[in-house]
Amino acid sequence: MSLKHNAQECFNKGLLRKIPSSKEKAEGSIRAAKRWLEEAEKNLKSKAYQSSVLSSYLGMFHAARAILFMDGIREKSHYCIARYLEEYYAEKKILETKWIDLLDHYRELRHNSQYAVDFMASDKEAESAIEKTKEFIERINKIIREKEKEGKEHGR
Fold first, then answer.
1. What predicted TM-score, i.e. pTM, was given to this entire model?
2. What HEC string does the chain produce?
3. Around 33, how many Cα atoms within 13 Å sit in the side-chain half-sphere?
4. Residue 4: is its pLDDT beyond 50?
5. Which of 26, 72, 84, 145 is deepest in the core (most CB within 10 A)?
6. Pair 100, 57: CB distance under 8 Å
7. Which residues of 29-54 are buried (b: 16+ CB within 10 A; e: fewer)?
């Protein structure tokens, strides 16, 4: 049996579940993403590169969660957030697949950083993670603004 899941398998296993849609939680998640990005920048300045990469990933994670909150979805798995975005946004050409690949890449880096005994992030990795996180948050924000505009146009 494969360890890989698609979004439907994530729902079936309870790793993704329906909740009431919440613009407030989405906005809170974007604020959290920006705070983690600030933390990543502080860590970079302090030469705490590993912490900077972890903080950058958490910025991406919280930005991605914002879309799920808008859609009325709660996650219980970092992996399943990417699968949800892949299936419901990338496959519908709303979000480019490079963003899902990036989220997966930094999720795996986070995992390695926490569990591998020989993983050490470099200053270049930390700088790159910060730049990618800025771009990721902006891209997610754009999708959220488009969803809000759609909702207003449809009287929601």
1. 0.90
2. CCCCCCHHHHHHCCCEEECCCCHHHHHHHHHHHHHHHHHHHHHHHCCCHHHHHHHHHHHHHHHHHHHHHHHCEEECCHHHHHHHHHHHHHCCCCCCHHHHHHHHHHHHHHHHHHHCCCCCCCHHHHHHHHHHHHHHHHHHHHHHHHHHHHHHHCCC
3. 26
4. yes
5. 84
6. no
7. bbebbbebbebbbebbeeebbbbbbb
Tens digits of residue pLDDT in 12-60: 999 999 999 999 999 999 999 999 999 999 999 999 999 999 999 999 9
Q: Residue 122: which residues within 8 A CB-CB, separation 6 or more?
A: 49
Are 91 and 125 in contact by the 8 Å Cβ rule? The answer is no
Which domains does the chain show, CATH number per domain? 7-153 (1.20.120.330)
